[in-house]
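Try this one yourself first.
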């Protein structure tokens, strides 16, 4: 009896353990419908020749609208999103999707692209839910990736250059996922029977037939047209250079402007490219990507100069939109803002400096000057409290939550002392194109009423904003909206509150 009791006890424990930790078997009857990483290439002729193939495993299609591809370093410390798969929508059963490095030779044949590269010596790729980042759909680690970096089990071996890691198939032809990357993936070698990853030809082969039709020539897109294209599309774009390498956040970053609309697009060029000059009109082929939330054309070859032009004047912006994405509509555009320097200069990479500008409307905007532009700025212009006018390109170095906007100053006259304007500035105001700014002119009103227009639905928040931009100058109380507007009487409210929650009209400090 004791033996029988022990048998049933053991059986009960084993059954409970199996229910709590089911085995991830793969086969014709136990297949799971989900996307799996089926191939990874970490480099070939160039270190940027990288791609990842994702397949729909199972008998039904898979939805990718809430899926993203993540890369983690071998240590597991650094994590970054390579690309969102949302634009693909879904994969049919057995269908596949290829995503590749935008600077590599597989970019032109891939549906989506990423930038920044992955390490051939080791790393981790993960498919995870955008809405639930802790929900990992699939993970592949290779090389010297730590066991805690986020892969499944022991990492797969390091593949030889030009040969991908391939996921194994079972006897039913289904992708295997046992939870151990070293078991599920095989690294091809130059001596293996499998064919190495194909490298697209970069040299067109002419047809021997005299009657063959010539290949169609891509029509260059304008900047505005390019900004409307799908991410991951290879484009030929024509535009005027408004910034050249060495003037922006990265040594190889440049910027183009649409000569008709002023729309801008950033351009990532091959490292070490020289000879480009502001004002040149160029045509360049590249892949449209989203680099740290900034729309960027990644080019693998140098732009071709097709003429010269003159950049449109920067537009004047007084007030950005609200929220973390405040400056999004101005991304890549040349703008002009005025305000006061706040705080001390900071340092950025490659010898650039950072300044903080408090706009006349109360908001703040970060400024940056490249090493060459910073060398032309006097110490007095960088001093806290100095009133200045800044102009340059709005660039974002942010996350999916927005933010990270910075105005990169033009190399010449990008930051100048503010002077009292003789009339309303031109350009765009508060995000509204064209027409210039119409100043608020005091009207003759009954005694005891304000000399400026009060909003119809005025509330304490409006008063709070007014108080923050009041100043006394030459014995007059003035409201600043780019220039002075003389005030006589301010309106009152039922519960007036100033910017510190005290009285509506605080005594001067």
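Now uncover the answer:
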């Amino acid at each position: 009896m004791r033996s029988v009791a022990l048998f049933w006890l053991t059986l009960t424990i084993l059954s409970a353990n199996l229910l709590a930790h089911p085995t991830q078997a793969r086969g014709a009857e136990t297949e799971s419908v989900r996307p799996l990483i089926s191939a990874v290439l970490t480099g070939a002729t160039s270190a940027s020749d990288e791609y990842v193939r994702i397949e729909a495993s199972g008998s039904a299609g898979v939805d990718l609208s809430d899926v993203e591809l993540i890369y983690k370093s071998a240590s597991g410390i650094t994590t970054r999103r390579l690309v969102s798969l949302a634009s693909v929508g879904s994969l049919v059963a057995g269908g596949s999707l290829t995503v590749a490095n935008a600077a590599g030779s597989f970019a032109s044949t891939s549906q989506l692209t990423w930038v920044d590269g992955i390490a051939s010596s080791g790393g981790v790729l993960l498919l995870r839910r955008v809405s639930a980042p802790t929900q990992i759909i699939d993970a592949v680690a290779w090389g010297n990736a730590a066991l805690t970096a986020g892969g499944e089990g022991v990492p797969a071996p390091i593949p030889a250059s030009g040969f991908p890691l391939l996921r194994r198939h079972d006897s039913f032809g289904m992708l295997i996922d046992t939870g151990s990357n070293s078991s599920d993936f095989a690294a091809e070698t130059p001596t293996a029977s499998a064919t190495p990853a194909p490298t697209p030809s970069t040299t067109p082969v002419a047809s021997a037939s005299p009657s063959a039709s010539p290949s169609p020539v891509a029509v260059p897109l304008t900047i505005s047209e390019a900004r409307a294209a799908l991410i991951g599309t290879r484009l030929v774009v024509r535009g005027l250079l408004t910034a050249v390498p060495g003037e922006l956040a990265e040594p190889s970053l440049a910027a183009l402007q649409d000569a008709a609309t002023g729309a801008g697009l950033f351009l990532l060029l091959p490292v070490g490219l020289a000879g480009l000059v502001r004002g040149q009109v160029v045509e360049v082929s590249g892949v449209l990507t989203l680099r740290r939330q900034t729309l960027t054309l990644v080019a693998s070859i140098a732009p071709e100069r097709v003429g010269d032009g003159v950049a449109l004047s920067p537009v004047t912006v007084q007030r950005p939109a609200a929220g973390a994405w405040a400056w999004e509509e101005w991304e890549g555009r040349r703008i002009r803002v005025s305000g006061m320097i706040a705080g001390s200069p900071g340092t950025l990479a490659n010898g650039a400096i950072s300044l903080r500008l408090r706009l006349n409307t109360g908001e703040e905007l970060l400024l940056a000057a490249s090493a060459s532009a910073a060398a032309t700025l006097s110490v007095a212009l960088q001093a806290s409290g100095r009133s200045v006018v800044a102009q340059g390109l709005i660039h974002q170095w942010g996350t999916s939550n927005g933010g990270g906007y910075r105005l990169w100053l033009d190399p010449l006259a990008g930051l100048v002392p503010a002077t009292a304007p003789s009339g309303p500035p031109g350009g765009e105001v508060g995000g509204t194109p064209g027409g210039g700014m119409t100043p608020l002119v005091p009207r003759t009103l009954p005694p005891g009423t304000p000399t400026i227009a009060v909003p119809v639905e005025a509330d304490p928040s409006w008063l709070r904003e007014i108080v923050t931009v009041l100043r006394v100058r030459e014995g007059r109380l003035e409201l600043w909206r780019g220039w002075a507007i003389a005030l006589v009487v301010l309106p009152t409210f039922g519960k007036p509150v100033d910017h510190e929650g005290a009285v509506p009209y605080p005594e001067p400090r």
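Discussion: The radius of gyration is 30 Å. The chain is about 10% helix and 30% strand.
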